[in-house]
Amino acid sequence: MPIENFRWLAGLVAAHPDGRVVGRTRLQKELKLLQRVGFPTDYSYTIHFYGPYSEGVQADIGLLDAFGFVDETPKTTEDGKPYYVLHAKAGSSLAEVENFRPQIDLLASASPLSLELAATYDAFREAGADHAEALSRLRGKKASKCNALSERQAFELLQSLGLPHA
Fold it and tell me: How far is CA 89 from CA 4, 103, 105, 117, in A?
């Protein structure tokens, strides 16, 4: 019997340092890139404000909280913006997730901006855009977030994952 998406998602949260992921957006982007390198979930994504977004992932985060796999705690930034911290609970680990340990560690250590730009650029590439078109669309969507340094860091992240980056 195949492992359901929500169990893989729980295992992913548990595989993070201290079993903790800061931000639903981060989890969305990490999972999108992990799927691209073979993580066996089949969530559908669309381009949204912060890049690739999946209604299915969002719904399954609610399931994880309801089924007791994670605690999701609302927080507020200093400037009043809400975000969530997900903490894995006992029993959330999934041994099969360890096959993706190097990629998870890489994504968990990436800056939020690098992750956002990498996932958005990759979504454009996955949709069929060549490098020049994907970069142009990324710059159009992310405008002030794009500069030589942030783009280079995003491309280094994609390269480390073995995904198209130029």
Answer: 18, 22, 19, 30
Q: Based on the fold, state whether residues 65 and 23 are members of the same structural domain.
A: yes
Residue range(s) defining the domain that contains residue 81 = 1-98
CATH number of the domain enclosing 85: 1.10.10
Q: Is 115 helix (H, G, I), strand (E, B) or coil?
A: helix
Query: What is the C-alpha separation between 76 and 66, in angstroms, rounded?
Result: 22
State the Cα–Cα distance between residues 102 and 98, nearest whole angstrom: 8
**Residue 53 three-state SS:** strand
* Whole-structure pTM value: 0.94
Render each residue's pLDDT in the chain as its tens digit; 166 residues: 568 999 999 999 999 999 999 999 999 999 999 999 999 999 999 988 778 999 999 999 999 999 999 999 999 999 999 999 999 999 999 999 999 999 999 999 999 999 999 999 999 999 999 999 999 999 999 999 999 999 999 999 999 999 988 8
Among 75, 98, 121, the domain boundary falls at 98
